[in-house]
Amino acid sequence: MIGRIAGRIEVRGPDHVLIDVRGVGYIVFVSDRTLAGLPGPGEATALFTDLIVREDLLQLYGFSTLVEKEWFRLLMSVQGVGAKAALAILGALGADGVSRAIALGDWNAIKAAKGIGPKTGQRVVNELKDKAPMVMAMAGQSAAGADPLIEDAPAHAGAAPGARAPAPAPQAAAQSEALSALANLGYAPGEAASAVATALNASPELDTPGLIRAALKLLAPRG
């Protein structure tokens, strides 16, 4: 299994890049969002990868973060969602956007991706809602101790030695810590994830204490 590739971009296509790794070129398919964040030809880069093996085909898919890769694999576990559809959803929403949409049960956000209809959007939310807290927590762990993706990428002309992938959003750590705190208070993972996602949608700048307070307000019984 090829889990990560680091090298120099030779070609950028509409849905893929060709990465030269010590003289061997790998075609890696990526989402629109990931492609937009990659450097130009001749520059160093690295991607987490997932290799899909079929009878007549081997295709490599690339992701800027492990969270994006995890959502790709989970999305593909839903009936009717193949690799192309999973990349379309990630390209439209990003990994954090997918986490929030599924935690909130917002299938309209999912169906906004190219080629995704209402029934598929609903199926994605229904089948993966219980997985959202796990992936949201994973995002926080990545933010707290992320390894640099491409510090050991081969140095080539035009490639900056020691180049690093963009740092994860700081909200990811607060999100993970808030989920953990709510779990310790006895809230179910699904309702905790929904409350955290709602609070972040309303106020993306919240730190951990503020996020916990906002989520608790949403979870408080109304009467």
From TrEMBL:
A GO CC term? Holliday junction helicase complex
**Renumbered residue ranges of the record's region Domain II:** 65-142
Please give the CDD domains that the UniProt record associates with this protein: UBA_RuvA_C (cd14332)
- Show the segment(s) annotated as Domain I: 1-64
Q: Which GO terms describe its molecular function?
A: ATP binding; four-way junction DNA binding; four-way junction helicase activity
Report the domain of life of the source organism.
Answer: Bacteria
GO biological-process terms attached to the record: DNA recombination; DNA repair
Keywords of the record, alphabetical order, are: Cytoplasm, DNA damage, DNA recombination, DNA repair, DNA-binding
Q: Which residues are in the Helix-hairpin-helix DNA-binding motif class domain? A: 73-92, 108-127
Domain III: region residues = 170-223
Question: Subcellular localization, per the record?
Answer: Cytoplasm
Q: Which InterPro entries match?
A: DNA_helicase_Holl-junc_RuvA_I, Hlx-hairpin-Hlx_DNA-bd_motif, NA-bd_OB-fold, RuvA, RuvA_2-like, RuvA_C, RuvA_C_sf
Name the predominant localization: cytoplasm
Q: What does this protein do?
A: The RuvA-RuvB-RuvC complex processes Holliday junction (HJ) DNA during genetic recombination and DNA repair, while the RuvA-RuvB complex plays an important role in the rescue of blocked DNA replication forks via replication fork reversal (RFR). RuvA specifically binds to HJ cruciform DNA, conferring on it an open structure. The RuvB hexamer acts as an ATP-dependent pump, pulling dsDNA into and through the RuvAB complex. HJ branch migration allows RuvC to scan DNA until it finds its consensus sequence, where it cleaves and resolves the cruciform DNA.
* Domain comment (free text): Has three domains with a flexible linker between the domains II and III and assumes an 'L' shape. Domain III is highly mobile and contacts RuvB.
Family annotation (HAMAP family): DNA_HJ_migration_RuvA
The family database entries (NCBIfam families) matched by this protein are listed as: ruvA
Q: Which family does the UniProt entry place this protein in?
A: Belongs to the RuvA family.
Q: How does it assemble?
A: Homotetramer. Forms an RuvA(8)-RuvB(12)-Holliday junction (HJ) complex. HJ DNA is sandwiched between 2 RuvA tetramers; dsDNA enters through RuvA and exits via RuvB. An RuvB hexamer assembles on each DNA strand where it exits the tetramer. Each RuvB hexamer is contacted by two RuvA subunits (via domain III) on 2 adjacent RuvB subunits; this complex drives branch migration. In the full resolvosome a probable DNA-RuvA(4)-RuvB(12)-RuvC(2) complex forms which resolves the HJ.
What is the protein's name according to its record? Holliday junction branch migration complex subunit RuvA
Source organism of the structure: Maritimibacter fusiformis
> Per UniProt, what is the name of the gene that codes for the protein in this document?
ruvA
